Amino acid sequence: MHIRTLFHATILALSLSWLGLAAAGQDNHQATQKEVQPQVQAAKQQAIAKKKEEAVREALDAVLATRAALDALEKGKTKEALAHLEIANGKLTLLVARHPDLGLIPIDSEAIVIDFQGELETIKKAVDEAEDLLDDGKVQEARALLTPLASEIRITTTHLPLALYPEIIKKVAPLIDQGKIKEAKETLMEALDTLVITESVIPLPVLRAEAMLQKAAEIAKAKQPEEKEVLRYLDNAMHQLRIAQALGYGDIDKDYKGLYKSIKELEKRVKRQQWGERFDRAMEELRKALGKLHGRIAEPHPTR
To answer: pTM to 2 decimals?
Structure first.
């Protein structure tokens, strides 16, 4: 009886110890994430601002004039519609002259931020449960579990297809002159339907990992680097990458295995006090590799 009680007491002590370590680890991850929040926020604003700057004002004006022409025709104001079309055609002529390759011209961007706050184990558990539900054919229940699993900046950009849009708009004024108002309205709607929408996704865990590696690199360049601090940032960068991987941003073999290996190599160098040029070079290579992953995931893809 005494042995059994001692055994149970030992198991309880080990369990409490493990829970304590897990809680401490979670607190460490959350604290470090808060530390780099200003850098992450700046990177978010920069990414959104860059997309906004890419927008071409003349293209937006052409689309706004198209919508105004359609609205005027709906109200029976043909002269007003023709005036709007003249503006649209003028803007489009200027765009064609400036962009002879006739590609997609960005006209506007919108950004939303989704940030799942759960821990890594929560994500893994939800994914496992969703897989079980899919195996049972319960698609909508699986969808409800998976939908919140996102931590990203999602930037949606509308583009004007310069190879199609101007040619369609040119057809509208003659139709109005011929009294074919129904056909004119249909042609305007056809032009608006050619607008292309792309989506660019920037994972927040990857941004956080980049900020943490930057912190680690800065500390490592000090005359007497603080080993514990560098290791803390490396560990947290690894944790953020594991979250990104669990959320499905990228491929484990193609994108993450090399990054994990590089971080572990850097951790070994830190523990051996191997600072200096070789450490800095290895850190820079890791940050470049992470930047490439960021770029690949954020590559815009069409949604319409």
So the answer is: 0.82
